[in-house]
Design brief:
Layout (H helix, E strand, L loop, with lengths): L4 E6 L2 E6 L6 H26 L6 E6 L2 E7 L14 H12 L8 E7 L3 H9 L4 E6 L16 H4 L2 E5 L4 H12 L9 H8 L7
Parallel strand pairs: 2-7, 5-6, 6-7
Antiparallel strand pairs: 1-2, 3-4, 3-5
């Protein structure tokens, strides 16, 4: 098997980090599937950026079908809040339209690594597989050490897949930080603007 799970066993909590697979057989198909659904998340992110919002887009996938989507809202100064993150908006939509679905069977695709609020909300909602494009070096929450928390979290098994179509997402965030005052001059803004658009971190 060419996809090698990189995992940390944090007490009872086990978090798997998957490398991007080499282009062979089933593993290549998995990579293509991740990229296909990340493209859908990028559509949501571009729509957010087009209205001046922070370009985070999310899709929720169940059995190969997109069953929910969301994009960042209210990041502009006039209505700014830190509740309407893309992941939260997508979960709200799913609860309204497909409440019968088992969250453990979902895969979440996000153009940005989930923050601590969104990561823990996804976990508490039952989601156990999260794929993202661009790393949030300032506020990303996926390095949370679940084994140091109470039993509800310690017993979770989570699969994390980073850097799927990273360059596409990076380009959106670079455009955003060149023109917006949201998180301007923050660690994330400085890091993003310093990145080579065609390179890797």
């Amino acid at each position: 098997m060419n996809v090698e799970p990189l995992w940390r066993n944090r007490g009872r909590a086990t978090v798997y980090y998957r490398k991007q697979p080499r282009p062979e057989g089933r593993n290549f198909m998995m990579k293509r599937e991740h990229e296909t659904f990340m493209q859908a998340a990028l559509v949501e992110a571009r729509a957010a950026l087009a209205t001046g919002e922070f370009p985070v887009g999310v899709v929720l996938v169940h059995a190969g079908e997109i069953v929910g989507q969301g994009r960042r809202a209210n990041s502009q100064a006039e209505t700014r809040n830190e509740l309407d993150h893309a992941e939260i908006c997508a979960l709200r939509q799913l609860a309204q339209t497909r409440p019968e679905l088992n969250p453990a069977a979902l895969t979440v695709y996000s153009t940005l690594e989930p923050c601590l609020m969104c990561y823990t909300t996804l976990l508490l909602s039952g989601v156990r597989r999260i794929v993202w494009a661009y790393e949030d070096v300032m506020g990303g929450g996926t390095n949370l050490d679940l084994s140091r928390l109470n039993p509800l979290y310690r017993e979770m098994r989570v699969e994390l897949v980073p850097k799927v179509l990273r360059a596409d997402s990076l380009a959106l965030f670079q455009r955003f930080f060149q023109n917006s005052d949201y998180w301007q001059d923050s660690l994330l803004s400085r890091y993003t603007l310093s990145q080579d658009p065609g390179g890797t971190p």
